[in-house]
Amino acid sequence: MCMTILAGKKATSNNKILIGHNEDAPGKFLIRTHILKELPIQNNTTIKFEPSLQNFTLPNKRAKLFWIEAYTCNENPFVSSFCDSFINSNGVVICSNNCAFSKEDNPELNNGGIGYAFRHLIAQQAKTAKDAVEIAKHLIQKYGYASSGRSYAFADKNEIFVMQIVNGKHFVIKRVPDDEVCVIPNHYTIHDFDDADENLIAYAKLKGWFKSGEFDFAEVYQAENSKGLSKNTFRHSKALEILTGRKDWQNARKFPFSVKPNKPVDVAVMKKILRAHNENDNPHLTEPLSVCNAETLQSSIFELNNDPRQNTIRLALGRPCESVYIPIFFGVDDLPEDYKCENSELALRKHFNATPEDLNYKNNAWFLNEQAQKVPDKNLLHTRLNSLEERLERELRFISSQIDTLLKANLTDNAIKTMTGSVNSWAVSVRACLENLTETFKITDANNFSDNLSE
């Protein structure tokens, strides 16, 4: 289960596109972040991702990438195929949501289709969100998609596109209006569309899914047993309620693709949505599923600036309601020690070859966040974390102004040093706060770090 909020540049308080995303998945995971440096030449390097699929040739040139990786070991290779998010040095963001299940029962796939490689190949070379869409269309038409149903968001500083895919070679694409916000839980949300594969409607007629009248992609292609599920409709309606102020969304017969917010959206609104719960004594383990729930691995907010180096990723590890959104500038030359792994280039090749020992990162920030989320005094936990997060946001505004001045003066090295130093300082502050909490309550069960279904 995942959740994505896409705010157009005229729908936000500062006219900057905002992307909010909660990555949810059951089971044992470790969240790692990486910076993959720009590579001017890759010499037609091939790489195999899922063991069951083919080798793929990487682009000859690779943009610098900030990569949020959900790392796990599982006998089913596809568990690791669909959980990662990216932003590249061209300012293109990629994240996705499961939209299973589609009605497709006989997909057209070449050599098993494409899965994990899809987002990597796009992230490595997309120059704009529109370019990402064109690359995505080519890959789907060439290979076919190796999963039942999925929604991808491609964004840059100017525009956002949503691509919703059916197992095989069928897809639709719709641009998010600049003055609206799009909400995507785990069902199809595109009704009418701007672009699609040329056989989309004819295929639906052939299968008997559509006969005549106005064609509605979500209605036609969503499997009947996946329509109107409370785990999706509650989260969808909750986000729309926060955005519009209306409380009647839960009774909606059909959710709109996007809405005009009742006031400009800012980072605080994004955080409110991504941390939203059911009104329940145990909100993470309840039905219907809340936005922030027991399966939430990480939450991220991408704020897109004119200069891609100033793009800001706010990252909360684990459940965002019990975590601090730490700001990370894309332009840093390295990540804080406890937010990275020892070899990010090797990580790309080991993503589907993890062993339990590989997940034993006891000095990783993920462990410490998981430990802190076991603090029994939730009022104290929230008070400490909220106070720290407010401080980080104040410092971020001040530092961002400094960086802007340095870049305008062409003092690039100084700007990068300021970015890197600030992010390292914030990581130290977060670690100190979490360590104080875990030591106070003597929480040391780091070995259970990845059981995100436990309280």
Molecular structure report:
This protein is α+β, with helices and mostly antiparallel strands. The protein is 30% helix and 21% strand. It has ten helices and 17 strands. The chain has helices at 116-125, 129-143, 200-207, 217-221, 230-244, 267-274, 344-350, 365-372, 378-408, 412-440, and strands at residues 2-7, 18-24, 30-36, 46-48, 55-57, 65-71, 85-88, 93-98, 145-155, 160-168, 170-175, 181-184, 195-196, 258-259, 296-303, 312-317, 326-329. The strands form three sheets. Strands 3-6-7-8-9-10-11-13 form an eight-stranded antiparallel beta sheet, with helices on one face. Helix 9 (378-408) packs antiparallel against helix 10. The protein is globular. The model is unreliable at 446-455 (pLDDT under 50).
What secondary-structure arrangement, pairings included, does this model have?
Elements lengths: L1 E6 L10 E7 L5 E7 L9 E3 L6 E3 L7 E7 L13 E4 L4 E6 L17 H10 L3 H15 L1 E11 L4 E9 L1 E6 L5 E4 L10 E2 L3 H8 L9 H5 L8 H15 L13 E2 L7 H8 L21 E8 L8 E6 L8 E4 L14 H7 L14 H8 L5 H31 L3 H29 L15
Antiparallel strand pairs: 1-2, 1-12, 2-15, 3-6, 4-5, 6-7, 7-8, 8-9, 9-10, 10-11, 11-13, 12-14, 15-16, 16-17
Helix pairs in contact: 1-2, 5-6, 8-10, 9-10
